[in-house]
Structure formats: structure tokens, C-alpha cells
Amino acid sequence: MRRPVGSELFGGRLADCVYLDLSVRAVNDISPRLRSITFESPDLVGFEWQPGQDIMFDVPGAESVGRRRYTIRRADPLAGTADVEVVLHGHGPFGNWAAATVPGDRIEGIGPRGAQLLHDDATHHLFVADESAVPATMAMLEGLPPGATGTAWCVTDDGTATCPADGDVHWLTAGELAGALAATPLPDGTAAYVNGERSLVRDAVTVLQGRGLERIASKAYWRRDRANAAHGEPPRE
Known about the structure:
Radius of gyration: 17 Å
Number of domains: 2
Number of helices: 4
Largest sheet: 8 strands, antiparallel
Order of helices and strands: EEEEEEEHEEHEEHEHE
Helix content: 10-25%
Number of strands: 13
CATH superfamily of the largest domain: Translation factors
CATH class of the largest domain: Mainly Beta
């Protein structure tokens, strides 16, 4: 039975978070650096979530580092399954767990969490992401409202794709991002979502604000100079 945690404000409404007792159902390597993990649980039957929300995991055997948050890539509330996609970068408590996990492993989580959701009244959606935020970007692109358009700029170390992607999705290096954002169309009704490493988020937001874009939702998933805190995000300063 799902155990309620509390409520968070999502898109103007309160949604319930619940404890999730999860089992690894399948592991699939999408690319050499990106692994998809499918979880199953009775707690996921009837699970309600929105694209962009995440699950906060208690990393097994890593109590000293606290929790880590990963976006729900997709979920099937009828089958009781949910997928997350993890960048295998060779370090970090959840990344190390994900690199070694096999079907049957268990982990606890809390979800759904996260307040960065699609603006239903926007007619165009612009996404900026590094590798860590690509799964969130793809989930939100697939969840666009009918009639809306979307463009994504995804940053990787060498500018190559980490996963299959449909639609107007561009892969580039960090050095190419500012120029791309300076030139990308911003039609009336655009909302932007900027996620990833802290300095990338800061610089991308600066470019978009300089172009007069007001509707910008941004979130730093991590920072280069310091490990994430116990709540699963960069330390609050």
C-alpha cells in the first residue's frame, strides 16, 4: 500500500507524494553513457504524474549522501511501472548504483516530486538541457499540449546524441549553446525550460533574458565544483 508523504504545489494544484517500494524490472543501455531502468511496484499502480516530475530515491548503502532525484521518463499506471534514465559518468552514489543494478534489486523512493511543469497556455516550448536533463526534456516534449510546438537544444560533451529523439531536437557542445540560443526563434507565446549543470543554466537564462523572454523556468540539477546535498540537489547558499 502506498504511504502518503505530503503534498506539493504543482501547476497551481496540490498533488500527493507517496513512499514507493520499488523493484528493478529491467535495465536497458540506450547508449554507452545512458541507462534506462524500469521499476515495478504495486505502489505504481494508479500512479499519477506529469511530464517533468521526478522520484527522489534513497540510495542503497549510501546513507551518508542522502537522496538523489531523477526525472520520470515514462510511467504506466496500469502495469505499475516507471522508467528513469541515468547518465553513467563513473561517479556519484546513484550513478554507481545504477551502473551495477540488476533486475530484482530493490530501492525506496518518494514521488512524484517537482514543480517545473509544462505551461498549458504556451504555444511554443523551448528546452535547454545538458545530459542530466535530457530525459526530462524528452518526457516534456512528448507531453506537449495538442497544437503546441517545441524546440530542444541538448548539450553533450562532443555534441552527439545520447538517445533517439523525434521532432525539433538539436545536439551541440557547451561552446555552441550561446550562439544557438541567440539565433533560435522565439515566437509569441514561448515558454522556456532550462535544466542541467548550474553554470550552463545560468548562462542560458542570461542569453534568453537578454532577448526579452520572460517565461523561463530553470533548475540547476548539479554543479561542477561540489557534490549535491542530502536533499538531492546542489547545496543551497
